[in-house]
Specification:
The chain is of the alpha/beta class and 718 residues long. It has 25 helices and 23 strands. The chain is globular.
Length: 718
């Protein structure tokens, strides 16, 4: 290497390039190439027809991958030929751009790979959950990376990596191997052709909707993909987001719906001291397993909740998704808004509430003096909850980063038992009444086909397939532990002795390939709910959709606060209820907010992450290297910073962290930060100055708890 000269490198590279050019020229002039020239000329002359054939082949292949069956793909093609051809035409249009390029084969490959990747991604997603792959999954991709081990085993990750690398290498190699078009380029003609195709697609799309070949509303996104095909449904999820402006949206219409300010009132018929605490607990993938008709359990999997079902108001809980979509059930419960008016497969947490304020149950109850808190035993950044809850007006959010989680499911999810103490801690932060919204995670899939629980508390009978039996047995035992958590929470609330209402409900059915005929309700969008209380509410059983549950509970408590909740209380079961709800949602989120009359209930967030301060007591040097930092309220996500630099540290317990890689000197600043994914600082301690082996606290330098954590975190990142 030391004798290598720059001129030698240049000469070698030039000779390599010339050698490659000679090889390509030889190939072009070979006997085989000369024989193929008439074929290439024919294919170029009739390239549109070959594009159409290729589009049909690709459409069939991606549907076969998505449906995990060539036979089902064939049935779809033959059974709904107009839908199949409509999707093929969409793919065909994407091939029209090849006429702008000389390397047409390479561009065709890129386009084909794009569609095939969509098909493979969708096919794999449907192995793990019921909801198909859609544009909103791309918006939560960064969150999903943090949970990749929950969905991919080691072998699958290796295959995925090898597959991606192989495709990339092959595509790059085709840049030169694919050759170039040698005829005259007609880019103006190509542009006109693309415009004509786009216009024709618009006309055909309108006709397809009018003739009900496809639909612009997906009541069930999984069924929509089966009925209307992946290309149309995926593109609909890309371009059809938010709420389209209704035809009759105007100020006069909204004034009529608002009822002279009736929707924005904030009042209650109860005396302030008679207002109860209100707790909502969303149980991940929960439903009463006795609703399943194809298996039995060795004993009741949810005795505590069943006792509540029998003694308190309960019923079926209609949710907006199956097998996934936890955040969308949350959104409907917290806002009272109906997801049917949003784009197909959309997550408003990602498309709207992450960036903009949105009134919710938190803002509605804050107006009545409630302390409002959110809890989730998963990452604070997952589905952007830390920013979403801030924009919804919550006072605090305790995420996994503020919990010392010692017990996990065999799948790696936190068990729900830890939530009880943190719910009580949140309630202790205020002297008055509290609204606590809790999202559990224990019941989360994917559920293993191998028996990984030794001596399970509950066994399952009636399922012949061993893998499926193991999956249900695993799930049922998670349900049992979730039920124990529910029972322990109620016991703790009873011991607390404060008037309280607790609502338990499941966010969606588990990802188990359930069909309607498997369930007593014959409906895949039903879970279960119950309203427990210690204030003597009458038992009123009824089935209710998730977007109405908050308004229903508040009405039972004679609380009338929150624009959408007031709307449900006043207009439910009246004429134009749903159409006016769509107008109201559009006005609040995307319109001119006529209903607020210039006074929106939430203009900016003020939420604090966590409810406990991290404090430091002393730092003790090790005999060899490093230090032990002692304090209070440390968690596994507590990270030590010295003079603004993150140190290598190891969490030992809630009072001790060891760190190394630095030698402390007088004047050094030590801070402990609670860190989330993507290197987000959720909360930090006061600065402590190291002085002669002691720590001197700088009061008032911690995260400011009087304002939102978001701008402070953004400032830290800068």
């Amino acid at each position: 290497m030391k004798n290598l000269k720059k001129e030698d490198v240049i000469t070698w590279w030039k000779e390599r390039k010339e050698r490659r050019a000679r090889i390509l020229e030889a190939r072009r002039n070979s006997a085989f190439a000369k024989k193929m020239q008439p074929v290439y000329a024919f294919m170029n002359r009739f390239s549109l027809l070959f594009h159409a054939l290729l589009a049909c082949i690709l459409n069939f292949v991606i549907e076969a991958i998505s449906r995990h069956s060539v036979i089902e793909a064939g049935a779809y093609m033959i059974g709904t030929p107009l839908v199949f051809l409509y999707n093929a035409f969409m793919i065909f249009i994407t091939f029209s751009i090849v006429y702008f390029f000389k390397r047409r084969i390479f561009v065709r490959i890129i386009i084909s790979v794009f569609w095939l990747v969509l098909g493979v991604a969708n096919g794999y997603m449907l192995l793990k959950r019921v909801t198909p792959f859609n544009a909103q999954d791309l918006k939560v991709a960064s969150d999903g990376l943090a949970l990749i081990n929950n969905y991919f085993n080691g072998f699958e990750l290796v295959i995925l990596g090898v597959g991606i690398v192989s495709v990339v290498v092959w595509v790059i190699s085709m840049w030169k191997r694919g050759g170039q078009y040698t005829g005259k380029m007609h880019r103006i003609r190509a542009l006109i052709g693309v415009i004509i195709c786009a216009a024709l697609y618009g006309v055909i799309s309108d006709q397809a909707v009018d003739k009900r070949v496809v639909s612009t509303y997906f009541g069930n996104i999984a069924f929509a993909y089966e009925d209307y095909g992946l290309p149309y449904c995926f593109m609909a999820s890309v371009f059809n987001t938010g709420i389209n402006e209704p035809n009759d949206y105007n100020e006069a219409t909204m004034e009529a719906i608002a009822g002279d300010g009736a929707l924005t009132k904030c009042e209650t018929g109860r005396a302030s001291e008679a207002l109860p605490n209100i707790l909502f607990v969303q149980l991940e993938s929960y439903f009463d397993v006795s609703e399943a008709e194809f298996f039995t359990t060795s004993k009741d999997a949810c005795p505590n909740l069943r006792s509540m079902f029998e003694n308190y108001s309960s019923g079926y809980f209609k949710v907006p998704s199956v097998g996934a979509g936890t955040a969308n059930t949350e959104f409907e419960v917290l806002t009272g808004m109906n997801l049917r008016y949003f784009g197909p497969g959309e997550y408003p947490y990602k498309t709207y509430v992450k960036e903009k304020p949105c009134e919710s149950a938190a803002s509605a109850l804050s107006a009545l003096g409630y302390g409002t808190h959110a809890l989730h035993n998963n990452g604070g950044n997952f589905y952007s909850r830390a920013r979403v809850f801030d924009n919804m007006g919550f006072d605090s959010f305790t995420s996994k980063e503020f919990m010392n989680i010692l017990q996990q499911t065999p799948n790696g999810w936190a068990t729900d038992a830890i939530l009880v103490d943190h719910i009580l801690d949140a309630m202790d932060t205020t002297e008055g009444k509290d609204f606590v919204f809790t999202v559990s995670v224990q019941g989360h899939g994917d559920y293993p086909e191998e028996q990984i629980i030794e001596n399970p508390e509950i066994t399952v009978e009636g399922i012949e397939d061993e893998g499926l039996k193991n999956k249900w047995e695993y799930y049922v035992n998670q349900v049992y532990e979730m039920d124990q958590f529910a029972g322990n929470l109620i016991q703790a609330i009873e011991e607390r002795g404060e008037p309280t209402v607790v609502v338990f409900y499941g966010d969606h059915l588990p990802t188990m390939g359930l069909e309607a005929e498997d369930l007593k309700s014959r409906y895949l969008y039903n879970t279960n709910y119950v309203i427990w209380d210690n204030i003597g509410l009458p038992k009123e059983d009824r089935n209710i959709p998730s977007y109405q549950i908050m308004a229903d509970v508040l009405e039972r408590l004679d609380i009338h606060s929150g624009t959408v909740f007031n709307y449900h209380q006043q207009r439910r079961q009246t004429r134009n209820y749903l159409s006016d709800l769509e107008l109201l949602q559009y006005d609040i989120l995307y319109g001119d907010q006529y209903v607020y009359n210039g006074n929106p209930p939430v203009t900016e967030g003020h939420m604090v992450m966590g409810v406990r301060d991290v404090t430091l007591k002393n730092v003790v040097p090790h005999l060899d290297e490093g230090y032990s930092l002692y304090g209070e309220n440390f968690t596994q996500n507590s990270k030590v910073y010295v003079n603004g630099e993150k140190q290598k540290s190891s969490f030992l317990n809630n009072t001790r962290i060891d760190f190394s890689g630095v030698e402390l000197v007088n004047g050094d600043e030590i801070v402990v930060r609670q860190m989330g994914s993507s290197n987000t600082t959720f909360r930090k301690s006061d600065i402590y100055i190291y002085q002669d082996g002691n720590l001197i606290r700088q009061e008032g330098t911690a995260t400011d708890k009087t304002i939102s954590w978001v701008p402070q975190a953004d400032e830290e990142e800068e």
